[in-house]
Structures are given as structure tokens and as C-alpha cells.
Amino acid sequence: MLKNWLLIGGVVAVIVGVAFFSLPEPVGKVVEGQLAPDYSLPDMNGVQQSLPKGKVVLLNFWATWCPPCRDEMPSMVQLHKLLGNEGLSIVAASVDKDMGKLTSFVREYELPFQVLKDTDKSVSLGYGVVRYPETFLIDRAGKVRFHLIGAVNWTDPTVLKAIKTMLAEKPQA
Questions:
Q1: Nearest 5°: phi and psi at 11?
Q2: What gap in Å lies between CA 30 and CA 17, rounded to an integer?
Q3: What is the pTM of this model?
Q4: What is the H or E stretch that residue 7 is in?
Q5: If DSSP codes are grouped into helix, strand and coil, which group holds residue 38?
Q6: Could you tell me the mean pLDDT of each successive run of 10 residues in the chain, 173 residues long?
Q7: CATH topology of domain 51-173
Q8: DSSP state for residue 85 in the 8-state scheme
Q9: Pseudo-torsion of CA 103, 37, 163, 53, nearest 10°?
Q10: What's the rounded Cα separation, in Å, for the pair 138 and 62?
Q11: Are 58 and 135 in contact (CB under 8 A)?
């Protein structure tokens, strides 16, 4: 019986080790208070886009195959409806390689905000992202104010209050 538990423990340790060491190595690390790095990524029409300037930006790194990413999308759509006309720019940078699945997802969920293609993960790794979803809330001055790891309910009152506070701040000259 003890042999079986030791064997199971050993197998679990190997799996955890392989999973940990197989994570892609980030090439950067963006922290709160730092200026958000600019980027150039194609949107769904192939037009290169960069970080919106002078707006509060919710930059979300995600994938269609990620269950927590899928779970948070409806509340992100709702957030866009609530604050999209108030100066909030939502940018969803997908790391999907399968463009058919990405296109179907965008249509199915009727994503009303900018969806970018980070298929080689160059921008996500530059931000230090290695798991999904990860989100950066960036103020009008271009500083990262919040770095959130994992799915977020974007219509939660605490989250809405934080974003509304950022939107109410006057842009710096």
C-alpha cells in the first residue's frame, strides 16, 4: 500500500515538474506603476494596432481554449456596454493559433471591442504573461495601475468602482 502511494506521489511530482518547467519563458515583466509597453498587433481585419493613447485601457490576454477566459468574456462585453462610451478602451489580445476558432468565438460572443492576434505570443511574453487570462488596467497616462491574474467578473461593484475612478481622473498634460 505504501509503495502505491509513493509511486503515485512520484508520478504527481514528475507531472508538476514537467508542467512548471514547460511554461514559456517571459521576455519581460510589466509591474504596476510602470509605463505599459507599446505594441503592434493585427486586429481581426489584419490592420496593425497599437496601445490606445489617452484612454483608460483594459488589456486582456486570453485564448478561446481557456475555460476561465471564456467565463469572463460575457462580463467584459457587459463592461464595454456600461463604460465603452465613457473613455474605456477594451483590448482583447488572443494567443490563439487557430484563426477559425478565434473568428467563430468573436462572432458567437459578439465581442464589441478590439480583438487582436498575438499568435506568436510576442506581446504577451513581453508583458510577462505565461497563463491566461491576465489583464492589465492602464490609466490615461499609460501607466499600469492593476495587473490581474485569472478570470474577473468585470461587472462586480468593486471592479466597476476602480475603473470608474480611473475614468474620472483628469488626463495629465
A1: -65, -45
A2: 25
A3: 0.83
A4: helix 2-21
A5: coil
A6: 56 43 54 92 97 96 97 97 96 97 96 97 93 96 95 96 94 65
A7: Glutaredoxin (3.40.30)
A8: G
A9: -90
A10: 17
A11: yes
